Amino acid sequence: MASQVQHGGAWLPVPVVVVVQVAFAAMNVLTKQVLDAGMNRFVFITYRQLVATISIGPIAYFAERHKRPKLTGSIFLLLFLSALLGLTLTQYFFFFGLQHTTATFSCAFVNMIPVSTFIIALPFGMETVNIKKMAGVFKVVGTVVCVGGAMLLTLYKGKALTHPTANLVQQASKSLVELQKGWLLGSLSLLGGSFAWSSWFIVQAKIAKSYPALYSNNAIVSLLSCIQCASFTLLFHRDPSLWALRGRLQLITILYTGAVCSGLAYIMMAWCVEKRGPLFTAAFSPLIQVVVAIIEVLFLHEQLHLGSVIGSVVVVIGLYLLLCGKSKDNECRTAKQRQAINENPAAEMV
How confident is the model at residue 1 (pLDDT cuts 50, 70, 90)? Predict the structure, then answer.
């Protein structure tokens, strides 16, 4: 048993989480391509969540059929809110920002998720800060640094470091003011997506206590998001031709993002969190941006701007400072628990 933990629990999560991050990086690049080709954002999310539901549904049914809690009205409302915040709005905001910026730039805002979650969790008492301790100092400094990086990303684009003539056609068809406005709107949308996703973590924490069925939770939320996005599409866009898939790339992207990223990768990520904890998986999130940048610059000839590089570095520094503070908090909590057990051995038996 100890050997299993040592070999499976210690090193195996590392390649698994790397594979997941690379899969998510490919998802961002593919999604950018199909959205730029004109696919409607709500239609894309609808199809993606439909594929995710079909992929996860059977797993949820067989894996949790004997331990699935009863689905009450209050739990259903929480699941509906979870779908709205974590899938529908988060994806729509991110995809809007993705269309108006670049995949590399968009990934920088994904690195902000732990920080924005920390900010939102404070008023709910789910996070604490004690500036008299190093853990609290790291949390505060990390948050301030990350917010500063986000402001830098939003307000400063800077000169193109790669392929400076790549977007001459786009610049010729649009004025400089239009391009800058699109970049700013895209940045604000990505920021909104970050906070929508962070709000989802707060809702998900409540769901985990009242409906502790990981796969069923994901399958139901995916189905609800599919219905939500389909409803929004029918409400705002009455053109039936929007639902038609054009080309092999759209079909491949929908199947890949739905089955692999929302299905298989989600399960793999949950396994990594179970083995090594949420801080371990969060520490690998900047890898997505690195992989996306390599693909975009080398193969898609996208521009990489100075503001994106500087802002991304600042955000990552803030992220790791916050994670360091949370790690110290966990160490302190574990030490107190051990001390309590040592002082009262009977508590361990209970």
Answer: very low
The pLDDT of residue 8 is 46
pLDDT digits (tens, 9 = 90+) for 51-74: 999 999 999 999 998 889 999 999
Q: Which helix (H) or strand (E) holds 69?
A: none
